[in-house]
C-alpha cells in the first residue's frame, strides 16, 4: 500500500464512525445548532488529543515519582494511571467544548450543552482513532477494519457517553448557575468512573468471554445513561 492510500484509508476509517454518530446526535436536536459552531467544537476536540497526551505523560511521570516515594505496588500504579488518564481526557474534552461553544451566544438552551460536548468527544475520538488505526494499518487492512469496527461500537460510544454525562451538568444547571460547580463535579466523577472502568477491562483483558461481557455492559450502560440524560435535557425547564 503506497503512502497516500495509507493516509486516505486511515482517515476514512477514523472519521466515518465519528461523523455517523455526530449525525445521529444532531438529528435528535429539535433546534439545530450552527454547523460552523459544531465544526469548531469538533476541531477543538481533535486538538484536545494532543493536550491529553501531554497531560497523561506528565501524570504518569509524576505517578512514577510518587510510587518510588510512597512504595505502593504496580497494581495501584496502574489503577492510578487508568483512572487518572480517564479524568484528564474528560477534562480536556470539557475544556474543548467550554472554551468554544458553551461560552458563546449559541448556548441558549439546556440541551445545547450535550450537543456541544458530544461534538467535542467525537472530534477527540476521531483523532484518537487515527493514532490507533495508523498503528494497525502497519499490520494489515483486515486488522485495521477489525480495530475500526471495535472502536466504532465500543470506544467511541464510551467517549460520547462519558462526555454526555458532563454535558448534562451544564444542561441541568442552565437555569441555576449557582449549582454549576457542584453539578460539574458530580458529572466529572461519574464520567471518570465510567470511562475508567471501561479502560480497566480493556487494558486488563485476557481475551475471555466474561471480560468481553463486562466491556459491552459498560458500553450499553453508558449509552443508555447518555440517551436518558439527553431526553431529560430536552425537557429541562426553569
Structural write-up:
- This protein is mostly helical and 238 residues long.
- It has one domain.
- Helices cover 84% and strands 0% of the residues.
- It has seven helices and no strands.
- Helix 5 (141-172) packs parallel to helix 7 (209-234).
- The N and C termini lie far apart (57 Å).
- The mean pLDDT is 85.
Main attributes of the structure:
84% helix, 238 residues, mainly alpha, single chain, globular
In short:
By secondary structure, this protein is mainly α.
Topology readout:
Elements: H1 3-27, H2 35-70, H3 74-102, H4 110-136, H5 141-172, H6 180-203, H7 209-234
Helix/strand-derived class?
A: mainly alpha
User: Can you give the mean pLDDT?
Assistant: 85
For the secondary structure, the number of strands is: 0
Radius of gyration: 18 Å
Note the beta-strand portion. under 5%
Number of helices: 7
In this structure, how is the largest beta sheet organized? none
The SSE order reads HHHHHHH
Shape: globular
Helix content: over 70%
Distance between the termini: 57 Å
Number of domains: 1
Q: Uncertain spans, ≥5 residues at pLDDT below 50?
A: none
Transmembrane segments: 6-26, 38-57, 69-88, 113-132, 152-172, 184-203, 209-230
InterPro entries: PrsW
GO molecular function, one term: peptidase activity
Organism: Candidatus Giovannonibacteria bacterium GW2011_GWA2_44_26
Amino acid at each position: 500500500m503506497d503512502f497516500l492510500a495509507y493516509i486516505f484509508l486511515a482517515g476514512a476509517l477514523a472519521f466515518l464512525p465519528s461523523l455517523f454518530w455526530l449525525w445521529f446526535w444532531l438529528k435528535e436536536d429539535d433546534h439545530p445548532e450552527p454547523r460552523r459552531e459544531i465544526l469548531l467544537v469538533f476541531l477543538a476536540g481533535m486538538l484536545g488529543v494532543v493536550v491529553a497526551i501531554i497531560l497523561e505523560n506528565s501524570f504518569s511521570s509524576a505517578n512514577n515519582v510518587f510510587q518510588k516515594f510512597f512504595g505502593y505496588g504496580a497494581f495501584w500504579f496502574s489503577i492510578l494511571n487508568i483512572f487518572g488518564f480517564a479524568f484528564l481526557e474528560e477534562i480536556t474534552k470539557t475544556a474543548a467544548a467550554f472554551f468554544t461553544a458553551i461560552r458563546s451566544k449559541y448556548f441558549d438552551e439546556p440541551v445545547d450543552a450535550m450537543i456541544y460536548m458530544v461534538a467535542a468527544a467525537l472530534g477527540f475520538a476521531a483523532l484518537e482513532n487515527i493514532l490507533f488505526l495508523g498503528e494497525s494499518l502497519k499490520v494489515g487492512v483486515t486488522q485495521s477494519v477489525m480495530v475500526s469496527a471495535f472502536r466504532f461500537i465500543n470506544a467511541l460510544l464510551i467517549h460520547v457517553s462519558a462526555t454526555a454525562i458532563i454535558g448534562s451538568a451544564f444542561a441541568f444547571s442552565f437555569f441555576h448557575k449557582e449549582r454549576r460547580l457542584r453539578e460539574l463535579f458530580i458529572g466529572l466523577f461519574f464520567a471518570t468512573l465510567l470511562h475508567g472502568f471501561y479502560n480497566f477491562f480493556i487494558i486488563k483483558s485476557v481475551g475471555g468471554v466474561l471480560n468481553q461481557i463486562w466491556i459491552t455492559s459498560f458500553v450499553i450502560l453508558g449509552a443508555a445513561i447518555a440517551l436518558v440524560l439527553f431526553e431529560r435535557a430536552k425537557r429541562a425547564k426553569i
